[in-house]
Automatic annotation (TrEMBL):
It is a multi-pass membrane protein. The chain crosses the membrane at residues 12-33, 45-64, 76-96, 108-128, 134-154, 166-185. It comes from the Bacteria. It is found in: Cell membrane. The keyword Zinc does not apply. This is UPF0056 membrane protein. Pfam families: MarC.
Length: 191
């Protein structure tokens, strides 16, 4: 089993997942959700998103087939949630009503669909065509370390940006989030 490990594969998978997850680009969304929820449990959010990623690595396609849901429908549904979050950021309107329950808030919408969203889960299933599962698992674990560090650093990042900086970044990334949602929606709608 050790012979299956490939540093080149792990590096390629790690960078691919890092780009798709885009945890750094999600910082304004995460800070906005943290303000709404009062607290984000970094550990729970990281573990839940890691669980979803590993689950999809192992049984993603059969699970969706069991539910009679194809990858494209899954991606469209995830894009709608991302679109609504982007609207919240730009308009300052609350669509997702907060129950002030940080236990579920750390899981939805943070673990899913922001971190382990349809793009991430679809990418993980696609990587199986070219890479060994053990290397994909290593790439997932490396990304989970980065995710945890970013989630734990949100308060520090928020202090560095300040209120005005945070508002500008939030509005800007709200538009980016809308664009990403529309792209995912369009690319999966006619499949």
């Amino acid at each position: 089993m050790f012979g299956l490990f490939s540093f080149d594969q792990i590096l390629a998978i790690t960078f691919t997942l890092f780009a798709v997850i885009d945890i750094v680009g999600s910082i304004p969304v995460l800070i906005s959700l943290k303000e709404k929820l009062g607290h984000i449990d970094s550990g729970k959010a990281t573990i839940a998103s890691g669980f979803l990623m590993v689950l999809f690595l192992l049984v993603g396609k059969p699970f969706l087939n069991l539910l009679s849901v194809d990858i494209h429908s899954f991606a469209v549904a995830g894009s709608i949630v991302i679109f609504v979050i982007g609207l919240e950021m730009i308009l300052g309107v609350e669509f997702f009503k907060s129950e002030k329950d940080t236990k579920t808030g750390s899981l939805i919408p943070i673990a899913f669909p922001l971190i382990a969203g349809s793009g991430t889960l679809t990418t993980i299933m696609s990587l199986k065509a070219n890479y060994e599962e053990v290397n994909i698992l290593a790439g997932i674990l490396l990304n989970l370390v980065i995710i945890y560090v970013v989630l734990r650093s949100l308060s520090w990042i928020e202090r560095i940006l300040g209120k005005a900086g945070l508002m500008v970044v939030r509005k800007f990334f709200g538009v980016i989030l809308l664009a990403i949602a529309v792209k995912i929606f369009k690319s999966n709608l006619n499949m």
